[in-house]
Amino acid sequence: MKFARRNALVIILLAGLLLCQRDLVGAQMQQTDDHSHMDIDESGGVAGEPAEVQMARAIAAGPRHVTDFARIVGTDAQGKRVVLREDSNGFTCQPGNPKVLGRPASCSNEAARQWSADMAAHKAKPTNAEPGIIYMLAGATQRSASDPSDKTNSTITMGPHWIILWPFDPKTTGLSVTRKDTGAYIKLAGTPYAHLHIMGQPVGTPMEHLAVNMQDDGALWSAESSEIQMARAIAAGPKEITDQARIMGFDAQGNRIVMREGNGDFICQPGKPRFVAQPASCYTTNSKPRITYMLAGATQRSISDRDDKTSPPLAVGPHWMIMMPFDRKTTGLPVTYSDTGAYIMWAGTPSAHLHIMGTP
Questions:
Q1: Which of 20, 41, 44, 281 has the greatest CB tally within 10 Å of its CB?
Q2: Residue 94: what are its φ and ψ, rounded to 5°?
Q3: Cβ-count burial of 260 within 10 angstroms (0-12 exposed, 13-18 middle, 19+ buried)?
Q4: Using one digit for the tens of pLDDT, what is the confidence trace for 81-103?
Q5: Handedness of CA 147, 179, 23, 19 (dihedral sign)
Q6: What is the pTM (predicted TM-score) of this model?
Q7: CB-based burial label for 74 (10 Å; 0-12, 13-18, 19+)
């Protein structure tokens, strides 16, 4: 029980380390500060608050398909932590305390709770063997972008977001460390507890778009000028990456060639976009996991079956990918295509990886 209380508290208090500056709204929020940080005897709920109110706030923190089967914890009239509903999917959701700055409602998987317990125990590095996931889809509040003990700055707010607890490196991935309202950024960069914030909702409306004017896989490829290839390769990634990336292309015979040298961390290529699943892309060469950017979109025959060679090609909007095997059950992430949010491609296979729609 002690482990569970400490573990859940750290999830709630992660906002103290995770949140970044948006608009100052302190005058509009009558909140006290949470200065306890890692106090394992504190609870995330409000003492004496009706259970149904706590349940509603906890459920609002995560996607519906996660919260429908998640464990819900709260606080009783004496301020003690209680289980309001048992779970069946490995997620725990908690209501937070809207009267205390830095105590957001959240839903977290088992790997996230292990990560949090490791941080609370001051371990040199987290021991979760798969990505921890925390959903904070009702937003959160904080005073400082980097200092959880800050008691003086005005209140700042953060919109709906979700978090991947895995040690991403900004240098090798090209991902930002600057807080922003859209896209993604790394917090605690350069430490074993680095993790990724992704702004917005993780679940969009399932839909499919058929690609048009595609060539057959066996059709001949027509040579293109180096200027056209360079432009298409550069359009595939964020400017911070493409400015320093090696650019690959094709000569008149279709052989792969270097069109511009780079710094060795990133490679961009024009692809052959008239052919299915040959989009322009930029990818990392030294990051673990590899990050691939396809910001000019792509095509694919199937989101679920890598070996599908016959289905009509689908058009995929601008996106970027984390090339590691995310699991549908343990992360709560979708496996169907949407123009917004994220989804796991080829779920349940060794090639499973995460697509995040939009630009980072």
A1: 44
A2: -140, 150
A3: middle
A4: 899 999 889 999 999 998 888 88
A5: negative
A6: 0.86
A7: buried
